[in-house]
Write a structure and sequence with these properties.
With 195 residues, this protein is of the alpha+beta class. It has one domain: Peptide deformylase (Peptide Deformylase, Alpha-Beta Complex), CATH 3.90.45.10. It is 26% helix and 31% strand. It has 4 helices and 7 strands. The strands form 2 sheets. Strands 2-3-4-5-6 form a 5-stranded antiparallel beta sheet, sandwiched between helices. A hairpin with a 2-residue loop joins β4 and β5. The longest helix is centred in the last third of the chain and has 15 residues. The radius of gyration is 16 Å and the shape is globular. This is Peptide deformylase. GO terms for molecular function: peptide deformylase activity. Removes the formyl group from the N-terminal Met of newly synthesized proteins. Requires at least a dipeptide for an efficient rate of reaction. N-terminal L-methionine is a prerequisite for activity but the enzyme has broad specificity at other positions.
Amino acid sequence: MILPIIAYGDPVLRKVGVNIDKDYPNLTELIENMKETMVNARGIGLAAPQIGKAIRLFIVDTSPFEKDEDLDEKEREFLSTFKKVFINAKIVKEEGDEWAFNEGCLSIPDINEDVFRQEKITIEYLDENFEPHTEVIDGLAARVVQHEYDHIEGILFTDKISSLKKRLIKKKLENISKGKVNAEYRMKFPLLKRK
């Protein structure tokens, strides 16, 4: 089932997610719904807060990058198969040089800005079967994971841009929270007046 994506301005996007266990209600169905919602919105990642749940769960599917001509063949090949579920994730290390990449977010449609992130992370998480993993991830995959991880920490990519750029997009952000945006997918707006 395709779920509405929570828009910028909703307090759930600012909550630090809580850990869950394998008894979390309808978890398998929730993960499937998140995957369907992400694909429908043409996203490459989706975190539970973006569908209104303040829990430590996010999914990533970087396969759309396999068509990106700017990437080398090895990275395109890796990204084409990088599809994961992250439960109770904890980034334990970030390393390498910071590099800029133009990021967007399904909760903040029509706004893209350069965000600086470190190139390599070490992350501990549980998969959908609650099997533990510790992985070192780098490049674009690391960036996508960092972006989604920020969501379960109550952080948005717009928090990582300069104060000047924040001022320049302030009105756009206000409009998103009021529902004055044309997203190509279902959204739920916190400040939309209900009739």
